[in-house]
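I would like you to sit down with the pair of lines that follows and say whether tokens and residues agree.
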Amino acid sequence: MAEEELPGVLILDIGGTHGVLEDLAALLKKHFRLITMKEFLENKKEMSKKIQSVFVFECRPAIDRELLESLPNLKVIGNSGVGVDHLDLKMISNFGVKVTNTPHAVADPTADIGVALMLASARRLVEGNVLN
């Protein structure tokens, strides 16, 4: 499928401090035409029709009423995290847009860190390391 035929996904940026990780962007490019917030703001009239999804990475871009009103073909907001506390789900659903997230993405690593911290505390590893 040619890039023009791919559905557009709005992202804040690629790389940098708050942009989508470059490896993740490469994966997204296989299925979507990536449109950065800068590109969108520079040509809102044309880009707004192409965007069918917004990919929220580290709570960015912010999803507000103004953004939703400017994206008439928006179908889904994909959040790359566990929670959706930063999203106004009621407002978003009023626009007929679905929200997805990745609830189990970090479950195992979180459990691993929890167990490691309990073992370190029980065995006083930090104190032992400081004494050496």
Q: What stands out?
A: The CA atoms of residues 113 and 119 lie 10 Å apart. Helices lie at 22-29, 37-42, 44-50, 65-69, 89-94, 107-122, 125-131. DSSP finds seven helices and five strands in the chain. The first strand starts at residue 8 and ends at 11.
